[in-house]
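Entry 14. Ran structure prediction on the chain below.
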Amino acid sequence: MSFHTCYYGKNNGENEAQSNEKINAHLVTYYFIDCVIILFIVFYAKVHLNYDICIMNQYEYACSRMVSKHMCFFTCILGLLLSGGCSNKQESENLTSKAKKMIEFSKIDSATTYLNQAVFLDSTNSEAYFLLGKVKAHSKDYNLASWYLHKADQAGYILDSIIHVQVGYLEGQSIQDLYEEMNRRGVRNFELFKAMAWSLYDDYRRREALELIIQEKSKYQDKDAMLFLQAKMEYHLSDYVGSENHLDQLLRKRVLVKRDKAVCFGYKASIAYDQGNKTLTLHYLNESIKIFPMENYLRFRGTVYREMENKKSACADFRQAYEMGSIEAIDDLAKYCQNEQVK
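Output, structure tokens:
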């Protein structure tokens, strides 16, 4: 019932524990109000239906009494459905909305309380289960996260969103098991596939990872993302010819976002560096940094400048990388840029 929602979300400066106690107290109050409403409906139906029929003759009165009993029964059932079904579902949705606001303000304890109440009121609330799984994953309680995400899946929540959260904390064999399960269900999710490929790579099954990419790439909608993944894997397997060909193919298409385009040039710079061509390495790094500056490529270019004995340019790059948040750049400045003052 809509008037229930007016209490939720009013904090008035109290802490999270007080807020959680208030939520529980309000829910008890609402259940009491629901019971009173049901009793009122039954009483009203019985009194008024019988009263209207008392003016008739005895035969009609007896028949009408029978109808009245049935009406009371159905009215009672209707009251239970409206109060215990629709009301619970609506309150569950309201609690879920409040929980989302709490998550935005990093009030995780209050959000968890709201969400627990939401799934208690409505066990089919898939979004509440999903948010509980997401919160538990964030707090590194991965067992509970997996359980809540499983419940969200069972309740029909968006599977791609569930997988996105799972990929964020699962690793190794768990990723491979999830990939096999989704395969059996006919689900194609690129983030999961990418995690699967790198999981194989980390397990020293690197050639198998590349073969999987080549075998499966036609089954995924984002062909460019699959080609990019293949180029990266080829680079790490020292297949520089294949990697550079695929990187060039992507760059010619001009469909990449700026960051991915910068990464393409970064990989081309790495290939040139591994092949001992520092001039070409700088050319590709300049392109990468011009498109989308990233701290790792600034440090990379600084290292190349240092090896080419261009200390001023090297220190300028190390400085910029440090200002962008690179912890490693502090060591670079300390080792090679004695006159640089780190603020």
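The first helix runs from residue 16 to 53. Will compare against last week's run tomorrow.
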